[in-house]
């Protein structure tokens, strides 16, 4: 058998990394951060455990990258759903509703993500996934009419993070509807814009438990040689 080409090896590495990101989102969402080990993530992904440390310095960095992937792909899907629009107010409304929707649909995952950002040892970790999320939010701010995106983007990010924190605070959560109203008033958005977190998005894109579309493993489940092992791990 001839050795694999460099391009094939690169594609296999890319798919392995995608499976690790996908597994991290699933497991932390199911069990929480502390109850999920790197070994658990590798097993769910059907990958060798040594690959985790090859791609990521540690568990916190892996989980942050995985959640930022989920956030940026969720936001991208909301912004580009039909009917597509370039209107600034509608895109800002969709962005707000998409992030609030994650707080509703993935409370364990998002709570763990917010807690991780406040950890002094790691804190906020810039990564390709985070930069893609930032690019979408910066574009949203610009389309909304910002004259200074460098100033207004961090404020939007802070407003959204604060809303997620307020919605998920144990013992004293604020209603998503109230947080949405406050954000819509701040950005002068009509209530009928976007998709409220208590409503279903066109096409049934909210509350979707299958997140595989956000992670390009490139191998259908029926053809994935790690599929049986991964499904067995998921059933435990």
UniProtKB/TrEMBL annotation:
Pfam families: TetR_N (PF00440). Transmembrane segments: none annotated. Residues 14-74 form the HTH tetR-type domain. SUPFAM superfamilies: Homeodomain-like. This is TetR/AcrR family transcriptional regulator. InterPro entries: DNA-bd_HTH_TetR-type_CS (IPR023772), Homeodomain-like_sf (IPR009057), HTH-type_TetR-like_transc_reg (IPR050109), HTH_TetR (IPR001647). Keywords: DNA-binding. The keyword GTP-binding does not apply. Residues 37-56 bind DNA. PANTHER family: HTH-TYPE TRANSCRIPTIONAL REGULATOR PKSA, HTH-TYPE TRANSCRIPTIONAL REGULATOR RUTR.
């Amino acid at each position: 058998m001839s050795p694999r080409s460099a391009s094939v090896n690169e594609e296999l590495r890319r798919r392995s990394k995608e499976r690790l990101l996908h597994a991290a989102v699933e497991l932390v969402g199911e069990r929480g951060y502390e109850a999920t080990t790197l070994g658990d993530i590798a097993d769910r992904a059907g990958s060798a455990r040594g690959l985790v440390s090859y791609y990521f310095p540690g568990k916190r960095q892996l989980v942050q990258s995985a959640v930022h992937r989920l956030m940026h792909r969720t936001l991208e899907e909301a912004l580009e759903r039909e009917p597509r629009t370039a209107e600034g107010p509608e895109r800002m409304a969709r962005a707000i509703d998409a992030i609030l929707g994650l707080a509703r649909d993935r409370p364990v995952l998002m709570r763990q993500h917010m807690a991780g950002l406040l950890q002094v040892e790691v804190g906020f970790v810039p990564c390709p996934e985070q930069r893609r999320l930032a690019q979408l939010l910066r574009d949203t701010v610009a389309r909304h009419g910002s004259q200074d995106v460098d100033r207004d983007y961090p404020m939007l990010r802070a407003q959204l993070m604060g809303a997620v924190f307020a919605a998920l605070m144990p013992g004293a959560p604020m209603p998503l509807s109230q947080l949405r109203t406050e954000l819509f008033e701040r950005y002068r958005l009509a209530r009928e814009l976007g998709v409220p977190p208590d409503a279903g998005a066109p096409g049934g894109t909210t509350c979707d438990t299958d997140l595989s579309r956000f992670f390009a493993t490139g191998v259908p489940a029926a053809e994935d040689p790690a599929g049986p092992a991964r499904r067995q791990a998921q059933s435990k």
